[in-house]
Structure formats: structure tokens, C-alpha cells
Write a structure and sequence with these properties.
Layout (H helix, E strand, L loop, with lengths): L3 E10 L3 H11 L6 E5 L4 E8 L2 E8 L5 H9 L2 E9 L2 H10 L10 E3 L2 E6 L9 E6 L2
Parallel strand pairs: 1-4, 5-8
Antiparallel strand pairs: 1-5, 2-3, 3-4, 6-7, 7-8
Length: 135
């Protein structure tokens, strides 16, 4: 059975990263590691480390993305939970065998990692991302 390593990050959908930082960085005191454009996800992301995990503030840069649609329907808030795994392919196979609805049946490779999403209709309403570092 594939092993879960840790919560890699919690992604929070925001309309404006700079405005959101007034809480996360300025009021709460979290350290902002960096902000980067992520063209493959059509988003701008702020990375705020917390122990071995991080909070990611995700601002869509295109109205046709899942994050933009989430914001339009639900407003700002927790978008997804990312779990780091040792074997993402094995995890996806295990979930498929259990009848879990996947958004990505095979992992996508992005800049040193593989990711895949599980549909929230199979998880009780939570969008789950799996994350595996490429070694």
C-alpha cells in the first residue's frame, strides 16, 4: 500500500495575493518565502512555510481555471489539501481500484514533481492533490 508522507501544503484561493498577505504575513506573522508565476497552472502563488508544510495562496491569472471558477462560485477560502506520497502511481491505482473518482488518472509532471488530483465528489467535498518528488 502506498505511503502518505505528510501534508505538503494547504492551498487557499484568493482574489488578490497582496491583500491576502495582510492577514497571513502581516497579522499572523507567517514568513513569506516567495511569490511566483506558475504558467502551467495559470496562477500566481505565494508560498508561506509552516514547519514541514506550507500554506499556498493561489491567485488565478486566467478566468478559465478551476481556481477562478472556485472563487466565482464560493469566494476565497481553502481550495485543496495536498498530501505528499512516495508512490503517486501506486496511490492512483489503489484509489481507482477502490472506485474513487480521479481528476487525473495519471500523474502530471511539473518542475521536479508529479501531481494528480482526486475529485471532491469522492472525498466528501475536499479537493485532494497528491504530490511526489521526482528523485
Amino acid at each position: 500500500m502506498p505511503e502518505l508522507i505528510k501534508i505538503n501544503h494547504i492551498a487557499v484561493a484568493v482574489e488578490d495575493i497582496d491583500a491576502a498577505l495582510s492577514f497571513w504575513r502581516d497579522a499572523l506573522g507567517m514568513r513569506l518565502d516567495h511569490v511566483e508565476e506558475v504558467p502551467s497552472q495559470k496562477a500566481r502563488v505565494a508560498f508561506l512555510p509552516v514547519g514541514e508544510s506550507e500554506v499556498e495562496l493561489v491567485q488565478p491569472t486566467n478566468p478559465d481555471t478551476g481556481t477562478a471558477k472556485f472563487l466565482a462560485e464560493r469566494g476565497p477560502g481553502i481550495h485543496h489539501l495536498c498530501l505528499e506520497v512516495q508512490d503517486i502511481t501506486g496511490m492512483l491505482e489503489q484509489l481507482k481500484a477502490a472506485g474513487v473518482r480521479l481528476i487525473n488518472e495519471t500523474p502530471q509532471e511539473l518542475e521536479g514533481r508529479r501531481i494528480a488530483f482526486v475529485h471532491p465528489k469522492s472525498t466528501g467535498g475536499v479537493l485532494i492533490e497528491f504530490y511526489e518528488l521526482i528523485k
